[in-house]
Amino acid sequence: MVNIKKLNLALATAFLSAVIIFTGCGKKEDNYNKAMSLAKKGEYTESLSYFEKAIKDNSERADYYIDYGLALNHAGRYEEAVKMFDKATSDADNSVTRCYSKEAYYGKAMANYGLKNYEDAIFSCDAALDYKVLEELDYDIYLTLAASHAMVGNEDAALDSYFTAIDLKPSSSEAYYERAVYYKALERYDEAAADYTSCLQFNSNCYDAYFGLYDLYTIQGNTDNAESILNELAGKKGESAELYCVRGRVKSALGDYDEARKMFLKAAEGGENEAYLYLGDLLIEQMDYEGAVDSYQKLIDNPGNVSRGIVYYKMAECMCLTKDYSNAIKYIDEGLKYADSSSYDTLLRNKVIILEKTGDYESALTEAEAYLAVFPSSESMAKEKLFIQSRIDSMELNKKLDKQKRKAAKAEKSGDETTDETTDGTTTDGTTTDGTTTDGTTTTNGTTTTNGTTTTDGTTTTTDNTTTDTTTTTDNTTTTDTTTTTDNTTTTNQTTNNGGAYSTTEETVVE
Questions:
Q1: What 3-state class would DSSP assign to 437?
Q2: Domain boundary among 346, 366, 394
């Protein structure tokens, strides 16, 4: 989506036109003029020392702070840039300070975007739009606002901002392209295709829009339209390095890898760094992973206009293909540090997939939820999240079942070991006593019952069919509930008091 370097360049152009009005002449402006000369040539890092000297010479110039901040943005030194833009804002209310404040807030918005402080970027964009001056900047501000909303999952606000940008410049190809990329990330493919087509109506040389359409048609299985796009690109005339890169991409898509490789190398020789990205892709197709890594490394060292986030994703892809998932995750995480809204989708989506491959479903679920927070309309990620959750649930269930099996096995083993042993509390033939039970003879605290004969404290009672229900001894107290039936005779046992304790037998009458 938003390309921060393009936006910085657009803003710098606006500032340069304003500088002509406010900058005076004299020796003190030499350092500033030298800094601006370098910045115009894209030599931003080299310009920084001259901006510092210019500010030291004249610390009251808001335009110096603004242009210094822009150079810092280009150099990726966003935190320092924020400080410069803060110094350029003013509470004074006049036409000059309002212009500077609007420019400063917009520059600060881009710095915060670079820092991934998207809420702060939104705030700064809104603050800039509050100033009803330099309205030619509003188009670019709305594009930055749209991208910032997109990165925090404010889908409606993001689309509203894109629509407003297009209303401000209906014939601008850039806004259609940015919105098409966003629609594609949201999996709203028909709307994405419509915006890519609109982009090409206003700029037939926007090659990324052609390939965007090609990707969409490929996803939808529309091979005829996909082939038509490639044929149209193949017919482009010219000898520029950019066109050689385009031809290489076409040849690669058609499977003509040898010719594609020649085109990419020729484009790279002509200064088209992006060719190394597609050369790496081609080498992956040929399973030359080491060569692909070398090609991508050239871009990491000198990215030019290529998103470092995408390059790190490509490095991660190589690691995955060699099953080096640990390093793949490292490259993905490094890429996320540099990701803009156009590469964040690809990086985070693939992080989810790589984590699944490693079996780390808990982390995969966390990343899937983070993805859906930014791209809530993604049906494919919503399905992926359900799949991940089902895997987690299945694993938890298997753990519980394994635990139950181990517990049952342990209990069975313990039961085998206690069979036929003499132990307190042993149950044999259904009789439980605080003693030993063998062959139906039970000895309990001096009471022995054998085949209907009961002996208690030296007293013997012999009956037929004698049943002794329970004998319990607690603190020298014995309760024996005995029922004896002999030819309609009622037998009532004794109650004996021994040492202050007592034993009670319950009287039972049988008619």
A1: strand
A2: 394
